[in-house]
Amino acid sequence: MAKTFFRLQKFLRRTQFLLFFLTAAYLMAGSLLLLQRTRLVIQQGSHGTPSNQALAGPEEMSRVGIMDPRAAQSPGPRLLVRMEALQEPAPEQRHSPHWLTSRNSELRQLRRRWFHRFTSDQEPLQTAAFTAMKHTAEHKGTYMGCFSHDSRERTLKGAVFYDLRKMTVAHCQEACAERAYSYAGLAYGAECYCGNTLPAAAARPEECNMECKGQKGSVCGGVNRLSVYSGEQLRAAATRRRNVIYRGCFRAPENLTDTFPASLIQPNLTVEMCSEFCSKKEFPLAVIRGQECYCGFPTGRFPLRQGADGPRCSGARNASSAAGGRYCLVYQTPVQDTRCTDRKFLTTKSKVFVALSSFPGAGNTWARHLIEHATGYYTGSYYFDGALYNKGFKGEKDHWRSRRTICVKTHESGKTEIEMFDSAILLIRNPYKSLMAEFNRKYAGHLGYATDRTWKSKEWPDFVNSYASWWASHVLEWLKYGKRLLVIHYEDLKQSLIPKLKEMVEFLNVTVTEDRLLCVENNRDGNFKRSGAKQKNFEPFTQEMKDLINRYILTVDEALRGRNFSGLPREYVPR
């Protein structure tokens, strides 16, 4: 009996060891397979991914469960069902943990995919590849050489553009030429800088070793290095298309020579002659008084706030007559005012976590543009939008909780999301305008317009029924759970830019100069203003929609007054 028991025990021990060995072998085989696949992906990424395969299209992204960046900007599509419940007092259903987990998971996948794409493309090209890279790609102008690039003391300090996927030499040259700049400089394979003066410090040719993101075989600078191209031919061709904006007739300052840094006296002076002269000098304003042309910036001595159009300036639009010398004509040149374009991340983590909160379509991107240029610091975002990053909002790629940005954009309105912030600027816009702006963005991007067919489809009434209640709940919940709020109405900010911007900057505990605020006012539109208001030949809001929206407006107005804030502007209700 003992012998039989001993044999059974020996067999079980062998079986246990065999099972352990098989389990270990299985895990090792799986690990080797995973490492092999990872190595294959890295090798494919190092050889370069075609630009058209860098990121999946919206259809492919939806198939694999990855969110479109525009959809990631706001939780709208996933709130369509939840927002219907806003008509019932059940806030816990609107912000369910399941929805937050799903949305955050998709955002993490999108960020991770974009980050791997960005870091792999940032690797400098190997020397062997660089020797084969010639300046023979299709672009006009002359390659001027490789130069040092100091972000703090830039020589090409004009307009700046970014495009992480499609930057080419020709694209940069055309963008600079449209804004009256002679030179286009490219850095990091994706950044474009404009100016009329060549950088002083030349660098070795091999130090400009990064390939353009959107054009193989072209050099687009390197790390702290600029590949500079001239664009005189493009600049001359762009002159015909260039816009010179009439700013108005203003009383001339007492001493024009002290007020404006550059001047020109020219018989038979024309607007085009003065604008071209000031553009070459890189000034955003061209000022004409008789045969005199002056170039400069808006300043405290010449703020451009009180125009004199009317009887005093009758006939002053003719450059040969400037109302007896007491008034001058002011034009906006294509050159950008660069006194407020320098921006950076906070050097130390912010102790106060500030939100820039709004309903989608309420002007949050525009407010970020104003805040960044006024304070000189980047703003962050709860979401990631590659289109915004390409336009210069570098805080898009920074983690929203890094506290390296002056404030963080958010459209969230749940109790948990609100209480994460120490304070907030609450931006409110007329719901009629907000709904139309967000509908345009959803179906035509940041700068486009939805087609009439889309407006007349069932998408529009469904959108209004879901999003109108969200507009109201967003304000109500921030009023309820927000710890410290500054309420800014979009319409007031648009009408009284400087005073309202001062309020926002003081709320953010930043001190700025008057000239910087005037520079912001001179660059007030930014890169995300839709060109003109596309008029529709029909009324998009039905009477039923108006009745619904007006009830929400009255509710929000009452809530604001109950918290001792000013009520909604009169133009909101009733429509």
TrEMBL record:
<dbReference type="InterPro" id="IPR051589">
    <property type="entry name" value="Sialate-O-sulfotransferase"/>
</dbReference>
<dbReference type="InterPro" id="IPR002889">
    <property type="entry name" value="WSC_carb-bd"/>
</dbReference>
<dbReference type="Pfam" id="PF00685">
    <property type="entry name" value="Sulfotransfer_1"/>
</dbReference>
<dbReference type="InterPro" id="IPR027417">
    <property type="entry name" value="P-loop_NTPase"/>
</dbReference>
<keyword id="KW-0677">Repeat</keyword>
<protein>
    <submittedName>
        <fullName>WSCD1 protein</fullName>
    </submittedName>
</protein>
<feature type="domain" description="WSC">
    <location>
        <begin position="140"/>
        <end position="232"/>
    </location>
</feature>
<dbReference type="InterPro" id="IPR000863">
    <property type="entry name" value="Sulfotransferase_dom"/>
</dbReference>
<comment type="similarity">
    <text>Belongs to the WSCD family.</text>
</comment>
<dbReference type="Pfam" id="PF01822">
    <property type="entry name" value="WSC"/>
</dbReference>
<dbReference type="GO" id="GO:0008146">
    <property type="term" value="F:sulfotransferase activity"/>
</dbReference>
<feature type="domain" description="WSC">
    <location>
        <begin position="243"/>
        <end position="340"/>
    </location>
</feature>
